[in-house]
């Protein structure tokens, strides 16, 4: 990448300064209900082709200096078509865009229905982004409406006053997006300028990161315009408990726009029958003989969801307004003991995967065919769970987890927290804000059974004690109903964050990164790992990552590293130890990784990380069949499964 100092004033801090200190409107702490079509609400997706322009000026600041947002982007200079949702990196044949760092600009012009602009009172019009990586500033018709830091969670803005005050129904949406990572972003990174002019061009810089996946950038998830009445349901919080033949659904509803209102609630089963009713903003619903939400392969009817209809009637001026929102609700409980993870009071063993939002061409962009293929592969595999490594996944993916019964360890973007400065108060405050956004988005999902606040941080550093004590306590305060963890690769005796987690999640790569090629060391080293952690903390343990790279079609007997046979052999060595320890205090195993994925270029990466049991194109390697046999065997050990689903032949 090339950047100049912009007249000598910016220097190495050009991009971070632009990233972190532009003035504007921050996304507020309001509710973040997922947009849905209801009798009182309309939604319109803005996917498709947007105008796109990378700011190639020396300081990456021409767009702001020339105020590109004040007029159509095509009038500022050359633009190209860019699909949304998608990462921009792999779309073109321009190699400079593949690794571009700095500001890029998107624009979309849409016509709004007149019914969205008229009325007394007129409806509320909201612009919502599922995610955009990493730092976003949004204008509508040249007026700034929202600013957001973070690449994996939604943000929105009420644009009613802008569009209803403009002549005509044209809505021009302009987005400035910066993918720069600094020591205080989440995930962190750093910009390194190369000062040796005999080896690098003037003001040459690179983006450094401490994580092993490609830093794709762009508008990655759907952009939606939606409406609500002027008085509306802003947020809903639901928690559930059950005992014997009665379940309790506790709810809290917040309303904006009117104090003179009435709220009514109806809970319906999957046949549409009303099973409980309530009224008021706070209360509880009693459900007799409930159908509980169970994980896949733990019950003959996994992922059972009720529908909670919340209806608001509000007086605003002389108008009587009504807003309706329907929330899927799964009734289930989670409890952790010193050696078990209990769902609805029954021991649950995580036999699942780690994933990435990653695919050819579209990068991290949401892609429905890929999502459905992945869930079909998960069920074929006999996987009952996954971790959202290493950032929150799209709401569309989480919806399917809810309805298919896939248990989720919901992870924040706290990956690569390695530098001492990333444990300071500035980073901590941002991490707390990210956890607030994540819990606000996913708090009502039955599939989310645990929060993970970070992956492989430098938790052996002394500042990690206060840092993780604070983040974990904050997350528990936001949601007391779920356990909280982070994923460690530190030595059990040196980890300053482990005392504060509910479940120990450990990553290890014996005979790969450690003692490479020596499969014979795995039984001893893995057994010692488990025994040391459990003796120290007396908490249940998940083997949250393990695996080996394999190049599809590369074979070796005896097994050699990078062959499909070596990947199979390594898995079997791990499994032999896991089979012993899961009878004691090991409560899960998550393979790294579900599928091959792209990384930065490097001498140890041949077109990405090859630890997937499936290729990037979702074709199985030999290890997929090893894992499939294992997971179905574990599932079949449960006496709770009826004979009709105890054979994986149904999923061939």
TrEMBL record:
Entry's Gene Ontology cellular component terms: extracellular space; lysosome
Lineage top rank: taxon: Eukaryota
Pfam families cross-referenced by the UniProt entry: Glyco_hydro_2, Glyco_hydro_2_C, Glyco_hydro_2_N
The UniProt record lists the keyword RNA-binding: no
Subcellular location: Lysosome
Primary location: other
UniProt function note: Plays an important role in the degradation of dermatan and keratan sulfates.
NCBIfam families xrefs: PRK10150.1
Protein name: Beta-glucuronidase
Gene expressing this chain: Gusb
């Amino acid at each position: 990448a090339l950047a100049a100092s912009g007249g000598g004033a910016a220097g190495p801090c050009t991009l971070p300064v632009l990233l972190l200190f532009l003035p504007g409107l921050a996304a507020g702490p309001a509710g973040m209900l997922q947009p849905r079509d209801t009798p009182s609400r309309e939604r319109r997706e803005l996917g498709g082709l947007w105008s796109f322009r990378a700011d190639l000026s020396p300081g990456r600041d021409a767009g702001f200096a020339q105020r590109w947002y004040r007029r159509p982007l095509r009038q500022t200079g050359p633009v190209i078509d860019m699909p949304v949702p998608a990462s921009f990196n792999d779309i073109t044949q321009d190699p400079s865009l593949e690794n571009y760092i700095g500001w890029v600009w998107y624009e979309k012009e849409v016509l709004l229905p007149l019914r969205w602009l008229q009325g007394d009172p007129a409806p509320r019009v909201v612009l919502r982004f599922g995610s955009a990586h990493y730092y976003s500033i949004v204008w509508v018709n040249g007026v700034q409406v929202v600013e957001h830091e973070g690449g994996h969670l939604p943000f929105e803005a009420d644009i009613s006053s802008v569009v209803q005050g403009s002549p005509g129904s044209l809505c021009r949406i302009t987005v400035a997006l910066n993918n720069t990572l600094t020591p205080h972003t989440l995930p962190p990174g750093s910009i390194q300028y190369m000062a040796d002019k005999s080896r690098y061009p003037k003001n040459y810089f690179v983006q450094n990161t401490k994580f092993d996946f490609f830093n794709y950038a762009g508008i990655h998830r759907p952009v939606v315009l939606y409406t609500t009445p002027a008085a509306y349901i802003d947020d809903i919080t639901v928690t559930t408990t059950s005992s014997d033949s009665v379940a309790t659904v506790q709810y809290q509803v917040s309303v904006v726009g009117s104090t003179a209102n009435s709220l009514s609630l109806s809970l319906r089963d999957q046949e549409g029958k009303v099973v409980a009713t309530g009224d008021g903003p706070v209360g509880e619903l009693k459900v007799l003989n409930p159908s509980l939400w169970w994980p896949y392969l733990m019950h003959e009817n996994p992922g059972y969801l009720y529908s909670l209809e919340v209806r608001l009637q509000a007086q605003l001026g002389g108008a009587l307004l009504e807003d309706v929102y329907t929330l899927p609700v799964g009734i289930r409980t989670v409890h952790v003991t010193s050696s078990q993870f209990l769902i609805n009071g029954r021991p649950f063993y995580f036999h699942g995967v780690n994933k990435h939002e990653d695919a050819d061409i579209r990068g991290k962009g949401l892609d429905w065919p890929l999502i459905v293929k992945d869930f079909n592969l998960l069920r074929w595999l006999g996987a009952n769970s996954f971790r959202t490594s290493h950032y929150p996944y799209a709401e569309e993916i989480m919806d399917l987890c809810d309805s298919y019964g896939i248990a989720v360890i919901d992870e924040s973007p706290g990956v690569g927290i390695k530098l001492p400065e990333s444990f300071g108060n500035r980073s901590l405050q941002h991490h707390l804000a990210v956890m607030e956004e994540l819990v606000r988005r996913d708090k009502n999902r039955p599939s989310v059974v645990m929060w993970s606040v970070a992956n492989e941080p430098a938790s052996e550093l002394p500042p990690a004690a206060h840092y993780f004590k604070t983040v974990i306590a904050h997350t528990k305060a936001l949601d007391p109903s779920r356990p909280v963890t982070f994923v460690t690769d530190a030595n059990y005796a040196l980890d300053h964050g482990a005392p504060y987690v509910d479940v120990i999640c450990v990553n290890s790569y014996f005979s790969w990164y450690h003692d490479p090629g020596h499969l014979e060391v795995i039984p001893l080293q893995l057994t010692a790992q488990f025994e040391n952690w459990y003796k120290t903390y007396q908490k249940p343990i998940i083997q949250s990552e393990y695996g080996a790279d394999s190049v599809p079609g590369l074979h070796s007997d005896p097994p050699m590293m990078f062959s499909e046979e070596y990947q199979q052999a390594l898995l079997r060595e791990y499994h032999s130890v896991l089979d012993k320890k899961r009878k004691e205090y090991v409560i899960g195993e998550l393979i790294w990784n579900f599928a091959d994925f792209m990384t930065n270029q490097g001498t140890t990466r041949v077109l990405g990380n090859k630890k997937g049991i499936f290729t990037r194109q979702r074709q199985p390697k030999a290890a997929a069949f090893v894992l499939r046999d294992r997971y179905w065997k574990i599932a079949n050990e449960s006496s709770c499964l009826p004979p009709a689903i105890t054979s994986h032949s149904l999923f061939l």
